[in-house]
Amino acid sequence: MQKSYALLTIIAAAMFLFCVSISAAWANKSSTVIEAPASIAKGTEVTITIKVSHEGNNFLHHTKWANVKVNGEEKNRWDFGWFGKPESNNFTRTITLTINEPTEIIAEARCNIHGGEPSTRFMINLQD
Question: Cα–Cα distance between 99 and 41 in angstroms, integer?
C-alpha cells in the first residue's frame, strides 16, 4: 500500500514538472513598450505608460522586475516574486512627470529565468 502511494506521489510530481516545463517552453524574455507624447510644452504634466509583456508567467517563472529611468536616474521599480507575480502576461504601469527639459525615458524588464529584451528608449522633446 505504501509503495503505491510513493509511486502515485512520484507520478504526480513528474506531471507537475512536465506541465511547468511546457509553459516555460512557450515563454519569452520580458519586454517593454513606452507610450508617451513625442513633444510637449515646457512645464506640462504628462502620464507615461510602460507596457510589459512576458508569455508563460507562473509562480516559478515570471517577470521578476520592471523599472523606468528618467534622464538616467531610476524613477520607479516594480519587483515581483513567487506569490506576488504580475497580474497577467501583459500588464502596464504608469508614472507622472512634469516635463521641463528634453527627457529620455528608459524602460526595462527581466524574466527570472530568461532575462529580458534590450531596454526601450523614448525621447520627449519640448515644443517650440
Answer: 8
- Tell me the C-alpha distance between 13 and 18, whole Å: 9
Helix or strand holding residue 73 (H, E): strand 73-79
Output Rg (C-alpha) for the chain, integer angstroms: 20
Q: Indicate the SS3 state at residue 23.
A: helix
3-20 residue pLDDT tens: 677 767 777 776 666 655
Is the whole model's pTM more than 0.90, yes or no? no
**Complete domains list, the chain, with CATH:** 28-126 (2.60.40.730)
Tens digits of residue pLDDT in 53-107:
998 777 788 899 999 999 999 999 999 988 888 899 999 999 999 999 999 999 9
- Residue 116 phi, psi dihedral angles, 5° rounding: -145, 165
